[in-house]
Amino acid sequence: MTDIQIFFAVGITLVAPLLLGELVERAGEPVILGEILTGVALGAYVLEIVDPEGSFTLLAAIGSVLLLFDAGYEEIDVPATLGRRS
């Protein structure tokens, strides 16, 4: 990859999740859903930055753990979720 291609790929990788996350949040869904959808849409096969085999599996496992941590750390308002009952 040339320098400009790397710059373009990194720029898309950083900006796209922010934009799609904001769009999904305005639709009433969690931001993390937009970030996941961006990762699936761009992925290793679209940008072709990394080889999805080999040492990349360790990074994928670490990312999965961080995603689960983020999902579990999110604060949930239980009464609002279940609805107010009299």
TrEMBL record:
GO biological process: proton transmembrane transport; sodium ion transport
Membrane topology: Multi-pass membrane protein
Membrane-spanning parts: 6-24, 31-50
Cellular localization per UniProt: Membrane
Span of domain Cation/H+ exchanger transmembrane: 13-74
MF terms (GO), sorted A to Z: antiporter activity
Principal location class: membrane
GO CC annotation, single: membrane
Record flagged with keyword Disulfide bond: no
Keywords, alphabetical: Antiport, Ion transport, Membrane, Plasmid, Sodium, Sodium transport, Transmembrane, Transmembrane helix, Transport
Listed name of the protein: Cation/H+ exchanger transmembrane domain-containing protein
Source organism per UniProt: Natronorubrum bangense
